[in-house]
Known about the structure:
GO terms for molecular function: ATP binding. Part of the ABC transporter complex HmuTUV involved in hemin import. Responsible for energy coupling to the transport system. There is one protein chain. 33% of the residues lie in helices and 30% in strands. By secondary structure, it is of the alpha/beta class. It has one domain (2-221): Rossmann fold, CATH 3.40.50. A hairpin with a 2-residue loop joins β4 (56-61) and β5 (64-65). It starts with a strand and ends with a helix.
Amino acid sequence: MTLLEAERISVDLGGRTVVNQVSLRAAAGQLLALIGPNGAGKTTLLAALAGLRRFRGSVRLRGRPLATLGRRERARVLAYLPQGHIAHWPLTVRRLVELGRLPHLAPWRTPVAADRLAVEEAMQRTDIAELAERPFDTLSGGERARVMLARVLAVEAPLVLADEPVAALDPYHQLRVMELLRDYADSGAALVVVLHDLTLAARFCDELLLLREGALVARGPADEVLSAVHLAEAYRVTALRGEHEDQRYVLPWRRLVAEESGDA
């Protein structure tokens, strides 16, 4: 089942086009990675898919135009994890994660057992249960990142858009979060995530979408997208690549000067 359909998405910011005619689809069970160099348009594209940026083109959720979904319905279908991990109130970790259940609560309705269970499970899965009563503003950057991910998971939305969910995390929690996202996709959800770590993208994601200067230049499995040609053109690097325990790794190794990468 296709949960997200985006056709010819373009976004203009500051008088220039920063996302240019990008199309993508995400089906239940898929984990897609948006990759590309800084300034490629990944974050802007993700925000447009979430309905948080004005765009040209069309976005459909479960076959329905994004604009026809009310805020509450959209929030139940789509959970969005932005960059930044900012909270504007001095809430405890538990209270922040509980905000993920708001789309399911009618006005003046208090949380029920299903809501409390979703919150507890999200905190357990992100390894923050022991932080439940800590104020959010006392946490480290990595702890904050996991709290905000728990809030997203507590929504139990069939579609998740996550912008750099492993940024600021130590290696253990990078792997843990990617395992969580993979498991969430395998449970029947669709996920689109922005990643900079090419090995994590290759290991855990079904498809990679490579952006450069706002345009989609490659889409497919890691072996195709992370080719030497694409890495040189998009990132201006060469890489070491191989397999370990039947899983791929790609390690950026050397910068390319303009002549080597083919740039004028």
